[in-house]
């Protein structure tokens, strides 16, 4: 069977999905390639006003021509796109709101939880969603009379993903504690654990972490309030949240992806950051994120959520070099749990996996007469020899401190107390070092006392039960400077 869209391309799926706008579900059946008898059976089955769900299946099977299933993977696996048909309603005051929460995927009580959000079925299902909104009008005689009014590709914003990720952790923490039976949608902000099943008695199952106590079946769901915001702020306003860098696949027949990226940035070489802010509509402030935002805008995207970057694990780093030919600050890597670093094997460690799979795109600004000027960009991935040599040595020295016990020492500095530790310093390794990643500090000592303006959430658990401010690995600024091409330094 030849599909009328490219099932590997999210934008092609969206374009074909938009052909549904203006149709009723009855028309979706009528326009399908099914024989007459099969269509009549569907009219009888789905025409029942009391029937719950299933309208999304009609779209999947009749419009997109693939068999609906309960697979945990995304509906269009080659493109990583999930299809969600969702109702909306209009109030007497003509305000639009989501008709219900959006079920993402069932919570599995039978197996250990997936702690890495980015590897979870939840993340896979919400990373790119083809939202199909239809107006639920109870005055109409049949569900099949509901009209499909909006079709839009949607991805949660970076800010929303941070909250969803924290919600995911809260739900999993309760499950791991053997308290799945105590889950409540009120526990979380955007991502809830909604109940599934007709009655509490019939829908209870055993818990992997607490086999003696049964828990109500639940699903990870995006709450109706969140979905109302999505509807009003993104779907109706037709705002793009999914952002491919290469919007026309034909470009890739002429140039490689990396060449396209470099061309987009290097056409701005010689411009100051102030000039770029004016051209690209970016607020000209001194926030650290400003220069990364400029890099994204030069690429025609708003954040590091570009489809190509996600697939290729490309990390954008804005590098600023001062007039003394020194990079202004080191480059942070993601936070990595200290308690896990202490027990990892190097080959399976967070740091090794991250650096081995990632490629960096350094976008370089150089200070000239007090003004930061764009010099260009460079792709770079850490070679295996360096990873297995200096990086591994640095990681092992840090792990040694964790295993033997981190020494936390209070030191008076003028009017404040600071906490020093015995982790290796930047000068001890040519490539990496470890230091705080959180702006707020929090320490819990063996006697139960605490220190810092932050909260427990700003800290990591140490192997001995104490807590210290979240740490992350950083690429040394001297190392990054050494690998930059000479033209970017001048």
What is the mean predicted local confidence, pLDDT?
89
Name the CATH class of the largest domain.
Answer: Alpha Beta
**Order of strands, widest sheet:** 2-1-4-5
What is the CATH superfamily label of the largest domain? DNA mismatch repair MutH/Restriction endonuclease, type II
Radius of gyration: 26 Å
Query: What is the count of structural domains?
Result: 2
Query: What is the straight-line distance between the termini?
Result: 57 Å
Organism: Kurthia zopfii
Keywords: Endonuclease, Hydrolase, Nuclease
GO molecular function, one term: DNA binding
Pfam family, one: MutH
Can you tell me about this structure?
- The chain folds into 2 domains: 226 residues, DNA mismatch repair MutH/Restriction endonuclease, type II (ECO RV Endonuclease, Chain A, 3-Layer(aba) Sandwich); 241 residues, DNA mismatch repair MutH/Restriction endonuclease, type II (ECO RV Endonuclease, Chain A).
- The termini are far apart.
- The protein is globular and about 80 Å long.
- A hairpin with a 5-residue loop joins strand 19 and strand 20.
- The protein is an alpha+beta fold.
- A 4-stranded mixed beta sheet has the order 2-1-4-5, with helices on both faces. The chain has a 3-stranded antiparallel beta sheet with strand order 3-9-6. A 3-stranded mixed beta sheet has the order 10-12-13.
How do the strands and helices of this protein lay out in sequence?
Blueprint: H1 10-17, H2 25-30, H3 36-46, H4 55-63, E1 82-90, E2 96-98, E3 102-106, H5 121-126, E4 129-135, E5 148-154, H6 158-176, E6 191-195, E7 204-206, E8 214-216, E9 218-222, H7 224-235, H8 257-266, H9 273-280, H10 290-298, H11 307-312, E10 314-321, E11 331-335, H12 338-341, H13 350-357, E12 359-368, E13 371-380, H14 384-404, E14 409-413, E15 416-420, E16 432-436, E17 443-444, E18 450-451, E19 459-461, E20 467-469, E21 471-475, H15 477-483, H16 486-489
Parallel strand pairs: 1-4, 10-12
Antiparallel strand pairs: 1-2, 3-9, 4-5, 6-9, 7-8, 11-21, 12-13, 14-15, 16-21, 17-18, 19-20
């Amino acid at each position: 069977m030849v599909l009328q869209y490219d099932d590997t391309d999210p934008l092609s799926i969206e374009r074909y999905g938009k052909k549904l706008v203006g149709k009723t579900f009855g028309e979706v059946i009528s326009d399908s390639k099914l024989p007459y008898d099969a269509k009549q059976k569907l009219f009888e089955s789905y025409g029942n006003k009391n029937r719950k769900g299933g309208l999304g299946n009609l779209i999947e099977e009749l419009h997109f021509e693939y068999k609906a299933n309960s697979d945990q993977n995304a509906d269009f696996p080659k493109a990583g796109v999930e299809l969600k048909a969702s109702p909306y309603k209009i109030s007497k005051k003509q305000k639009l709101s989501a008709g219900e929460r959006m079920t993402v995927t069932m919570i599995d009580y039978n197996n250990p939880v997936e702690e890495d959000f980015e590897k979870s079925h939840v993340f896979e299902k919400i990373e790119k969603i083809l939202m199909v909104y239809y107006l639920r009008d109870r005055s109409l005689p049949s569900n099949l009379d509901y009209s499909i009014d909006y079709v839009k590709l949607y991805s949660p914003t970076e800010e929303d993903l941070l909250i969803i990720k924290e919600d995911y952790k809260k739900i999993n923490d309760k499950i791991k504690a053997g308290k799945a039976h105590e889950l409540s949608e009120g526990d979380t902000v955007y991502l809830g654990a909604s109940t599934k099943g007709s009655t509490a008695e019939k829908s209870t199952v055993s818990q992997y972490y607490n086999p003696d106590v049964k828990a109500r079946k639940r699903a990870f769901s995006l709450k109706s309030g969140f979905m109302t915001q999505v509807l009003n702020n993104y779907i109706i306003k037709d705002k793009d949240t999914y952002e491919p860098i290469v919007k026309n696949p034909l470009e890739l027949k002429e140039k490689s992806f990396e060449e396209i990226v470099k061309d987009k940035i290097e056409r701005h070489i010689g411009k100051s950051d102030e000039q770029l802010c004016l051209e690209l509509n970016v607020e000209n402030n001194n926030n650290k994120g400003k220069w990364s935002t400029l890099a994204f805008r030069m690429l025609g995207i708003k954040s590091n959520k570009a489809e190509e970057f996600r697939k290729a694990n490309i990390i954008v780093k804005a590098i600023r070099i001062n007039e003394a030919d020194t990079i202004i600050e080191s480059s942070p890597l993601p936070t990595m749990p200290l308690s896990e670093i202490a027990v990892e094997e190097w080959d399976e460690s967070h740091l090794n996996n991250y650096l081995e799979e990632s490629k960096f795109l350094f976008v370089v600004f150089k200070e000239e007469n007090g003004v930061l000027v764009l010099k260009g960009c460079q792709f770079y991935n850490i070679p295996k020899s360096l990873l297995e040599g200096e990086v591994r040595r640095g990681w092992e020295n840090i792990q040694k401190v964790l295993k033997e016990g981190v020494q936390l020492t209070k030191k008076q500095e003028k009017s404040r107390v600071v906490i020093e530790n015995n982790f290796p310093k930047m000068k001890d390794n040519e490539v990496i070092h470890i230091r705080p990643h959180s702006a707020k500090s929090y320490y819990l000592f063996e006697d139960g006392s605490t220190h810092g303006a932050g909260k427990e959430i700003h800290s990591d658990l140490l192997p001995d039960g104490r807590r210290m401010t979240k740490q992350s690995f950083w690429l040394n600024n001297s190392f990054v400077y050494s690998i930059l091409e000479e033209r970017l330094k001048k």
